[in-house]
Amino acid sequence: MADRGRILAMLRGGDFVSGAEIGRRLGVSRAMVGREVGGLVAAGCRIEAVTGRGYRLLALPDGPLPEVMAALWHGRFDYPVRFLSEVPSTMQLAGEWARAGAPPGATVATDHQTAGRGRRGRNWQDPPGEALLMSVVLRPRLEAAAAGWLPLAVAVGAARGVAEVTGAAPGIKWPNDLLLEGRKLAGILVELTLDEQDVRYAVAGLGVNVHQTGFPAEIAGRATSLRQAAGYQGTRAELMAALVPAVLGAVRELELDPLRLRDAWRAQSVTLGREVEIRTSQGGVRGLALDVDEIGRIVLEMPDGRRQAYAAGEISLDQHAAGSSGSTGRSSSTSR
User: Fold this and answer.
1) In the prediction, which pLDDT does 1 show?
2) Across 292-309, average pLDDT
3) Cα(70)–Cα(241) distance, rounded to whole angstroms?
4) Diameter of the chain by CA atoms?
5) Distance from CA of residue 323 to its chain's centroid?
6) Using CA of residue 135, residue 137, residue 138, residue 144, what is the dihedral sign?
7) Is the pLDDT of residue 17 over 50?
8) Which residue from 74, 168, 182, 278 puts its CA 20 to 30 A from 50's CA?
């Protein structure tokens, strides 16, 4: 896979590169180069081969294959990637990988999940090959008391990654849904494992609607995709190439400069300053979303002037306000 990633990196310039030159750079025979190029073609890469001129890359596949990601990150990042066409849950596999010692940035991606999990235990449903479904291993240097901001930091990073690739600027709905044009673009689930008073590791699952041109009737009014809202014609691999380092960068910012990260979340929030309804196990309440406190809780001002902070719940924006969306919730699980 490493050689295939390097071959793709050499070909990404768009010009022909001879098999002899590729072999010289890799230290392998031309026959080996031919076999590796054949493997790339079988994986979905469009590569033109012309006798006497060599190979030229015409297009990368849409899926975030390990060799494709290695080429897109070549010379900048080196995150291990596991891609499977179908899995029960990327969160489950990434969690197992994290427990086995996977480094930060290690990512599991898939075309389709059969038992994907959303927040509050919901099933995640996706049309195969249309959404980017990925889970990233994180190893933040955070005390447990500060971990409440981690899902929000992941949202900031994800929004930055989307903006880098598409030019669109998603808003963040507390705690970490991404919205475009008032509709849900991406859902994020963060699960933490604590060790004494610190975060030992975390897994961030992201489901981003990329290629969908329509949605089932029950969610069509509150969901969107990058293709629908931003005219995105790129690949899921290109999106993931931006998302992983952007998420890790935001987590690093939370470690080093939490006030700056919190300000970034506030600047991108579509929740603060609006009337919201939050439903918890004790019932539903309405209030004005004033802020997010130092441990990531949403602070509401009630009609009687009282202020109350909520760490979890199902929140919906005032449907009479601009840019409103359907409800989502927050759910981060912890274990020791």
Assistant:
1) 54
2) 94
3) 9
4) 80
5) 22
6) positive
7) yes
8) 74
Identify residue 253 by its one-letter amino acid code. E
If phi over 0 gives left and psi between -120 and 50 gives alpha, with beta otherwise, what is residue 20?
alpha
Q: How far apart are alpha carbons 287 and 242 in whole angstroms? A: 36
Strand pairing report for 298-301 and 307-310? antiparallel
Which CATH architecture group holds 275-329? Roll (2.30)
| CB of 29 closer than 8 Å to CB of 19 | no
- Other CB atoms within 10 A of residue 101 CB: 9
Encode pLDDT of 51-94 as tens digits: 999 999 999 999 999 999 999 999 999 999 999 999 999 999 99
Q: How confident is the model at residue 156 (pLDDT cuts 50, 70, 90)?
A: very high
DSSP letter at 95?
A: H
For range 84-108, the mean pLDDT: 97
CB 296 within 8 A of CB 313: no
Q: Is the separation of the CB atoms in 178 and 268 below 8 Å? A: no
Cα separation of 230 and 107, whole Å? Answer: 25
- Provide CB contacts within 8 A for 243, sequence distance 6+: 132, 134, 157, 158, 161, 162, 206, 208
CB atoms within 10 A of CB 217: 7
CATH architecture group of domain 66-268: 2-Layer Sandwich (3.30)
> Strands 334-335, 298-301: parallel, antiparallel or unpaired by DSSP?
unpaired
Which CATH architecture group holds 2-59?
Orthogonal Bundle (1.10)
